[in-house]
């Protein structure tokens, strides 16, 4: 996991040198995890580790 951003930057630099446009965004998804937990608790569904219920994604996108 530590090397993932460095790998992304290396690939982006390669594409940049090839004359392509590059946009790279890094996010740790911590805010999404907090929102998922909050919605799960509000819906009285304990958040699971193995799968995400589809209705939570629907509610999260609203």
Any descriptors?
62 residues; mainly alpha; 3 helices
Describe the 3D structure.
Helix 2 crosses helix 3. This protein has one domain. By secondary structure, the chain is an all-alpha fold. The model has no long low-confidence stretch (mean pLDDT 79). It is elongated. This is Fragment of ATP-Synthase alpha.
Number of strands: 0
Distance between the termini: 31 Å
Fraction in beta strands: under 5%
Mean pLDDT: 79
Counting DSSP H or I runs of 4 or more residues, the number of helices is 3
For the biggest sheet, the summary is: none
Helicity range? 55-70%
Described by the principal axes of the CA atoms, the overall outline is elongated
* Radius of gyration of CA atoms, rounded to a whole number: 17 Å
Count of individual domains: 1
Uncertain regions spanning at least 5 consecutive residues: none
Q: Give, in order, the helices and strands.
A: HHH
Broad structural category? mainly alpha
């Amino acid at each position: 996991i530590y090397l993932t951003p460095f790998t992304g930057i290396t690939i982006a630099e390669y594409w940049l040198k090839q004359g392509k446009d590059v946009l790279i965004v890094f996010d740790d998804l911590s805010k999404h995890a907090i929102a998922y937990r909050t919605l799960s608790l509000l819906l009285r569904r304990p958040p699971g580790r193995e799968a995400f219920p589809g209705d939570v994604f629907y509610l999260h996108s609203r």
